[in-house]
Specification:
It is a single chain. Helices cover 31% and strands 25% of the residues. Strands 1, 2, 3, 4, 5 and 6 form a 6-stranded mixed β-sheet that branches. The radius of gyration is 17 Å and the shape is elongated. It has a single domain, classed as Maf protein (Alpha-Beta Complex). The chain is built from 5 helices and 6 strands. The longest helix has 19 residues. It is α+β, with helices and mostly antiparallel strands.
Length: 195
Amino acid sequence: MATRPLIVLASSSVYRKALLARIGIDCPALAPDIDESPLPGETPVATALRLAGAKARKIGEREPASLIIGSDQVAVLGTRVLGKPGTHAAATEQLRTMSGNTVTFHTALCLLNAAAASMHTACVPTTVRFRKLEAAQIERYLQQDQPYDCAGSAKIESLGIVLVERVESEDPTALIGLPLIALVGMLRQEGVVIP
């Protein structure tokens, strides 16, 4: 029986690590430390796909015999890209802007077989309609959930769900940051069957 290659997550995200645990993958998580700035004229989907691949390749240099999972998410409201807010003030502004509006979260996934130098990629969009949010509600939410490391300033997997009117996606885990349905398909192509 062939041994399963080491799987490595190219991310320091606790959310992505927790998602992998849901499907029985307990693997090392290594921060790729790359510049996540979009390139001039680059679409949000192209940015997410490029960054997911760059993260996987960066960790693949350190783990040349492994399967590397890279992922990136870009949130867009109209033509405005919504990054990780980082601060309370920035998160407040993002949520005010998103109030009553629809935001599309493009979650890109890359599975790199570092030994074979081959990769699989996908980008899964999720459309989120936010409720009309009052200033006091935004403040209470931010105090409790503190989503400063989440694109769009809302943790859908916890209290952020109360801010949302509707979510549309082919993969419910994509919004949290790692599309597991696509990932399981990619892993199967690499001979890793779950469960």
